[in-house]
Amino acid sequence: MDRFGVADGIRPLWPGAVLSGPAFTVWTRPGDNKGLHAAFETIRRGEVLVVNGGGDETRALIGELVVQKARALEIGGIVLDGAARDVTELAGLGVPVFARAVTPAGPWKTGPYRIGGTIAVGGVPVNQGDWVLGDDDGVAIVPADQVDHVVQTANELIEGEAQRRAANQKLVPRG
Questions:
Q1: pLDDT in tens, 98-120
Q2: Which pTM was predicted?
Q3: 146: how many CB neighbours lie within 10 A of its CB?
């Protein structure tokens, strides 16, 4: 994707967290998680909950109880342009969570919010159904209409890197 689509400042909450799946988008007022609870009424197994929380770092949009619900619904993970809490408990639950920040302060639950449509996370536009990928390096968004092209290009890059690795193994020190 020519280095586009990488969400700035969004990181995994623990090493080894990995996610991949279609985006289920929520736009909420900073520090308010009422929309996240509403999203759980319609999100489907494997979808990744992607939340524009305005980049707020002062109130956690999720914690242990929300992630327990996400685990029961078998969603693909959670990406927050906002904060989370209960990091140790979240890691134990196994649902991959990526966020801008961590704080012990809980959320507001008054709204407003919007479910679906285009949002922004880490400066990247995200539409419902775009592909979301996350690992130890961060989060990338692939527009739905570009997924096939990006997969083909990624496979070509992987093959080229494998060839370079093999060539590196054959290098002989000089001198």
A1: 999 999 999 999 999 999 999 99
A2: 0.95
A3: 15
